[in-house]
Amino acid sequence: MKSLICLYKESSLEEKLLWLYAAVMPFIDVFYFKFHGKKIVCADIVFIALFVVCVTKYIKGKLVINKSPLYLSLFLMPILFLVSFINSVNIFDSFVEFAGLIYLIILFVLVSTIVSTSKKLRSVLCVYIFSSVLISLLGLFALFAALTSGNMETNLFLGYGTMEAMAHHFPRLSLTFESPNMSLTYLHVALVMGMIFFLTQNKGKAKFFIFLAIIIMFAAAFFTGSRRFAGFLLSIFIILSWFGRGRIATMCKYISFSGFIVVFIAAFITTIWVVFPIKITGSDAPKTLNVQIQSAYSIHCLLPAVAVNMFKKHPFIGVGFGTFNRNFKDNVDWEHLEASYGFEAYPDYPELVEKRTLNFDPHSVIFGVLAETGMFGFLGLVYFFLQYMFLLIRRFKHAVCNSFERVMYGCFLAGFIGFMLNAITLDILSMRHFWFMLAVGAVGIYPGKKLQKDNIV
Asked: Contact at 8 Å (CB) between 455 and 405?
């Protein structure tokens, strides 16, 4: 307790605000108001205070923002996105989406500037993990209560609709997020941070509690029932491959890889076809069963097709950043949609299809950026991601063996790779926790910001 009090007293105001931001980040379903469809949540209010403090200290010369080779690709990306405004059907929509991206880029710069030492890094990771474990426990308790009581539709921590009843047969954990998919990605970041703590912890009792925290977060991630669990398992497999020692770690490595293959194949199949519900019935012939599987196209398959149609129309600069949903109806083959797609899991969709008002966001960084910003914006995105990944690889390869830095870069690199897999079916570019992971992972990359070495036992 004394050490925590000392840490609090020794920390700067911007560090305290960063801890607060990490603590309240998951509460995005509790918002103050909406601005053009965008929720203004508690974390955004904390960000404003953090930004004001950092700018004030920078003007006074008390805060130094070091130059980084990442900045060229980081700032080039939104500049290339701006070109797409030429084709935007709604400039205001584009500016709102662009402002959100700039906010996250500023967050990246501030976080990677403030967290400059191993001690500061550990403190912010600790806050993030504590919040993750807390909401995971609440979610698992809510799931247990729902399953035992049979009341699965009224709990705010859970999601249970037609799809869950057909495919999962249990409520999915949405926790404090808008959807189970968002919960999974948040816990994905928490898992990476938890693995850093576990692999660099020397004390047996502390290591046990960290391991317990990882198990709790893993269980919560599993019960999100998200297809993006594939990227989650991929990150675990990579971390265990690089740092796992002993029989138990080897066994977990093979289990995680096997799980990844199974979930990835299942996710691929269910993205293209409806599949569920699967019906198994007896046959008149002895010892035989009939298995009936849905073969209609899944609605998840529609979004990439629409994105490709948009890209074909404007391959170089796209249809306009943030305007995918505005262009959606003009790029859908409605007759083919009615005839070939299955809506059993989404009973509200047939009426929307009939009225030609069905609408979606891209739900994919890859296809979304290609459709909205064309090749210019897509190359900017790829350039930034590659620069980030290469810097992590370089730092990981040159870090001292068994050092805190090596584990940190390795774990964040594994997390980044897992997110890149999920980027095919998720718009990770708009996620606060994804950018938070990028920023914390960038700590130490800048010249003159070496982290202290902590050897692993």
From this structure: no
This prediction's pTM: 0.92
Q: What is the pLDDT, as a whole number, of residue 452?
A: 44
Tens digits of residue pLDDT in 429-444: 999 999 999 999 988 6
Query: How far is 395 from 397, CA to CA, in rounded Å?
Result: 6
At residue 108, what are phi and psi to the nearest 5 degrees? Answer: -55, -45
| Element of type H or E holding 282 | strand 273-282
Q: Which of 449, 392, 454, 397 is closest to 122 using CA atoms?
A: 454
Contact 338, 353 (CB under 8 A): yes
Q: How many CA atoms lie within 13 A of 13 on its CB side?
A: 13
Residues recorded for the chain = 457
Question: How far are the Cα atoms of 2, 23, 29, 425 from residue 42, in angstroms, in the given order?
Answer: 29, 10, 10, 27
Run of H or E residues at 395: helix 365-398
Q: Is 323 exposed, middle or buried (0-12, 13-18, 19+ CB in 10 A)?
A: buried
Q: Residue 125 corresponds to which amino acid?
A: L
Task: Give CA 413 to chain center in angstroms.
Answer: 14
CA distances (Å), 31 to each of 37, 385, 437, in order?
12, 30, 22
* Least confident window among 141-150, 161-170, 275-284, 442-451: 442-451
* Close Cβ partners of 143 (under 8 Å, ≥ 6 residues apart): 157, 158, 170, 171, 173, 223
